[in-house]
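Final report, results section. Input specification for complex C-07:
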Amino acid sequence: MIRDITLGQYYPADSVLHKLDPRTKFLGTMAFIISVFVFHTMPGYAVATLFLAGMIILSKVPVKFMFKGLKAIFLILMITVVFNIILTPGEILWKWGFLKVTKEGLSMAGRMAIRLTYLVIGSSIMTLTTTPNQLTDGLERLLRPLNHIRVPVHEIAMIMSIALRFIPILLEETDKIMKAQIARGADFESGNLIQKAKSMVPLLVPLFISAFRRANDLAMAMEARCYHGGDDRTQMKPLKYAGRDYVSFLILVVYVGIAIAFRVLGI
Amino acid sequence: MGIIKAFKLGFDYLKYDDDGNVQETQRAVNDVNLDIEAGEFVAILGHNGSGKSTLAKHMNALLLPSEGTLWVDDMDTSKEPELWKIRQKAGMVFQNPDNQIIGTVVEEDVGFGPENMGIPTDDIWKRVDDSLEKVGMTAYRHHSPNKLSGGQKQRVAIAGVVAMHPRCIVLDEPTAMLDPNGRKEVLKAVRELNQAENVTVILITHYMEEVIHADKVYVMDGGDVVMQGTPREIFSQVDTLKKYRLDVPQVTLLAHELRLSGVDIPEGILTTEELVSALCR
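Structure output:
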């Protein structure tokens, strides 16, 4: 059962968004998130909604996948809304004890709800159309300037991609160890939380030992294949902006321009 | 001079205590002399703990000798400042197929070595296409390594080494974790590389059946090279091999026993066909 877990939430499909350079998608997502916070009126949110709807259609990913991400933040969303409603000072509409609902509070809560929802859906579009590896590659390139302040960008990206490769292997191993322990009478199911946590110890110890052994082997295999850090390294699949990326950047600039114009004009 | 040459090679594993002082030393390889010619298929045999893996790691400069010298393509491994030049000449394939694949897609993994060597992108693609073709894994190039069988994974690992265009490939028990089918696949790929591309192959193993096609066999025990010669020379000494806790191929053993009980056949029979023709003579 444990092997069914897929990492990330990549949804394979053949769409323009899938083909875009991961850097474009990442910057686009950032621009969209900023725009959602720049817009503060209903016409503004209408523009953002249109943009988002357009992206969802372009991505060819079924809409229900977009909303999956919302489940995870439902609680945070509710807390934000409730606190905004009862704690914003202003024109009182309804009062009970020290709790009061204000007009400003309601509009603020509505705005925060829209912002959070769009933020999550916006980033879901990115993760649904980009494989974890592409994302890592894209981030490595985008963060490359940080090399100048001695952030080991290449190494961090390498760590991430190796982790991605080994997660399924370690999951499989966990499954194997678990079955071996169950076969010898271990009980992972019953008992309260503390007992359950305790029963995990005989699972974690062998798992860690094997992970260290694998890490050792892998390091040796990488060295044997001439790995010596990011210097003088070429790439098999270097990221290159194509025509569609430039078009996307143009659209993004126009979109962010609209957002700023709305804010300045106060619409 | 051969592609790999060792002179009085010795290596100690050191055990440190908590203060970083050497607590005890353990001799893993002792006074080994090797001379491997380019294009040869060499097998190194030995029981567990005989020092054969330690010796293999020297050929790739993963370990540096404590004593003596080892030359790879005329480069002294303990004096070369850029070890990766040696590693490019002598590629290495390890035992566990899972722990040596770095890429999440087959073709990306094969490209990992050339990427590290700073090969231009177009050439990397050429090398990847080429090496996948040589090990017969082209059909799987877009697959995830996790979905492949052990033998296929090991062939991907071999392709990853071949893509670096090494002059010699060291295989450290590449078949130990495979089923018989995977073992055959891997050995076939290795033999083809040796014959078609003239790549020097150094196969470390404890399966006797894998070494009967080798040009030269070294037998190691307790860190020493105790026997060397052609497979026929080695396998004609069944009793000496038994002393080093090594089995001989079943056919050889049968021929040996037959000879002991008085049948007139020569020593060192390696294949069933040979035994049949010797008996029918």
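Chain B touches chain A at residues 57, 60, 62, 84, 87-88, 91-92, 94, 96, 98-105, 107-108, 111-121, 124-125, 128, 145-146, 160-161, 164 (CB under 8 Å). Chain B has a mean pLDDT of 88. This concludes the modelling results for the funded period.
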